[in-house]
Amino acid sequence: MTERIGARAARRIALAAQGFGKARPATPERRHLLDQARRLGVIQIDSVNVVSRTHYLPGFSRLGAYPRGALEGLAWGSRPGLFEYWGHEASLLPLETQPLFRWRMALARDGAMWTGLARFGSERRDYIEEVLREIERRGPVTGGDFATGPRGAPGWWQWSDGKRALEWLFWSGFITTRTRRGFERVYDLTERALPDRIVHLPTPEPADAQRELIRIAARALGVATAADLRDYFRLPLEASRARIAELVEAGELTPVAVAGWDRPAFLTPDARRPRRVEGQALLSPFDNLIWTRDRTERLFGVRVRLEIYVPAEKRVHGYYVLPFLEDEAITARVDLKSDRKSGVLLVQSAWREPDTTHATPARLAAELTRMATWLGLERVEVAGPGDLAEALTGEL
Prior knowledge:
The protein is α+β, with helices and mostly antiparallel strands. Helix content is about 40%, strand content about 20%.
């Protein structure tokens, strides 16, 4: 018979799989970040820098005040442990998983990618090959080195033809990010940018690679529906269904029924099942724990929506809103902004959730203070509305 799991137990399994509930290291460093990246399998990248760019935040949420330069070294330094590619969205991924995405790179070369970029790759292949030869000759380049061609409407259509060529080559695996200057990618040939030990790893068959990506997703999610597992690395629908069925048949995934979930779920046999989870964390809106909105609602009973692209007058909670994880519940959310000139972490609004406790204002204030120090800011100020703002101000 299919095992039944309670909603709270499922939440604890998911939190433990994501690295929550553990004591933070006294001195977080490179090895802790690399272990965390391997646990998560993927860290989303985003350019919005109103608080901190999102790829820095999962490390702080789980490890505390680690040196930001350690992540930069792992991603873009001389001894990389991560590489950039399209994992979930634009992502940092453990270096050893690079072969698992070569099937996606091969599909991109054949035009199975973002429609507009695929069309450009088909229509301008001679130009793309010319750009590739120039990189072979010149060495690392940026989009600014190929700022040629007409620009169109906002979005990727605003890219120059040179930038489009670089992005097509990136999707297709011919080039990758060697480093970044500011937030601008510096591209180079994949075989020059990545260590030889990675470049020369054998390329698995697509089904084998997809099966391993499902395994990674299952370990990172703890308990997950088929849609959750597929979404983690944005796998093709039919392929993900087939790979999940194969893993179930092999005994590597166990079907379970979670109370309150309207579809079957899956669990790895060795998933941790803690009796309780303790700790607190501010979560980036792009954090792996909450990036799938319907999963967040299933796990926590909270609707989390990204309001960056919502007109200001229609926003409910704010522009860059971080939910506050308190033990096993999301108990608050805060709209934050780093005022770097004034040295202040601004709380532009602060809101209660149904699971808010009497301890929430004090615990949230402590975590905000830790974040401000980590960001090199001097203090935290509540500068806006919300039904938690007054209590939070009192604690600060």
